[in-house]
Amino acid sequence: MDNKAMYKLGYGLYVLTACTEEDNGCIINTAMQVTTAPNRISVTVNKNNKTHDMIMESGKFNISIISEKADFGLFKHFGFQSGKEVNKFEGYEHANRSENGIYYVTEGTNGYISGSVVNKLDLGTHTMFIADVTDAEVFDDANSVTYAYYQENIKPKPEAKEEKKNGYRCVICGYIYEGDELPEDFVCPICKHGAADFEKI
Question: Is 121 left (phi over 0), alpha (psi -120 to 50) or beta?
């Protein structure tokens, strides 16, 4: 089975936030509208995330819809560190509180939606929360970021590894000849020694 087929599914990326005695948030890719009347959404959250436990306790959350204006810093801040170890909102300036008392992210996002949980579905490693939409706001018309867009345009590309080349080094002066084979009549341009004084590297 080719698990890469899962990457072909079209879905967005969001900052899911919650608040109990403190504030927290994480990156998710599992938010969607499930019904329009009543207006309901679902979010699915890994049980290992602190945000999961906070939603279980409070029964409410916000999702900030990440836009194509976002940079990698947003993903690093909310997705590459654990709320169990750091307070993600301490000193974070790009957030406001909605009427439900929970932060939403204001930079690199095009809107937010508030949800009040009406049902929970245990999925083993994750919990799906079904929630009534209690508030929502659009910030601008920037396109919402998709997972494919994130992979292609936001996530840093791995640094190109230096291509290995074959060659020969002069044991007399250190000059390096690049190539798979050193010609038998080659003469070092620096010290004028012949091929016999070269070693393969």
Answer: beta
CA-CA distances (angstroms) from residue 136 to 39, 99, 113? 11, 10, 4
User: 138, 168 in Cβ contact below 8 A?
Assistant: no
β-pair type (176-178, 167-170): antiparallel
Give CA–CA dist 61/181, Å, rounded: 66
- DSSP-derived letter for residue 83 is T
> Which residue type sits at 103?
Y
- Of 96, 104, 114, 105, which Cα lies nearest the Cα of 60? 114
Q: What is the DSSP string of 160-171?
A: PPPPP--EEEET
Q: What is the pLDDT of residues 116-174, one digit of tens each?
A: 999 999 999 999 999 999 999 999 999 999 988 998 899 888 776 666 778 888 776 67
Q: How far is residue 50's CA from residue 21's CA, in Å, rounded to a whole number? A: 12
178: Cα within 13 Å, side-chain hemisphere: 3
Work out the burial of residue 133: count CB atoms within 10 Å of its CB; fewer than 13 is exposed, 13-18 middle, 19 or more buried: middle
